[in-house]
Amino acid sequence: MYRISNNTLVILPYYDLTYQSKVIEKDKKVFITEAPLRVIRENCLHYGSSYEGRKQSVTYHLGYTQKLPIPIHPATLIYAFPTQSPVSYDCIWLFYQGIRGIRPLETNSKTAIQFINGTEFILAQSYHTIHTQFERTGMCKVIFDQLK
User: Which of 4, 42, 66, 104 satisfies CB 3.0 to 4.6 Å to 127 for a cystine?
Assistant: First the structure.
C-alpha cells in the first residue's frame, strides 16, 4: 500500500486496467493499484485513526458535513481535501502542505493549483469550490494544531 507523506501533492484516479490511482509527489509520480479513497482510508488507519473517525472529528470541531478535509496525520501536518464527493470515482485528493497557490482559469470554471515544487495542475472544478475546500482545510489544520 502506498504511504502518504509530506512529499505527496495529489492523488488522482487513473483509468487503467492495472492501476487505479496516480500519485504526484514533489519529485516523482507513483502508480498504485488501489483507488484513491482506499489509499486515504488505509493511511488514516496507519496514522492512528479510522477515516470515519477523522470525518466525525472534523464535523464535531468545525460543523462541516460534506467534502470534508481529512487530517491524515496531524502530527506531521498532512491534511488532504477532496475535489468532489469522496465516493465519486473522479474525486481527486489534494494535500494542503503541498499547495503554494490557487488561481481561477476561464472565468472561474477551472482552477490552477500551483504546488510547492513549482509544477501546476489544472482542475475542472470551479475556483470557488476549490478555494472553499482549501480554506476549510486550513481551518481544520488550525483546530487540530491546537489539540496537540
Answer: 104
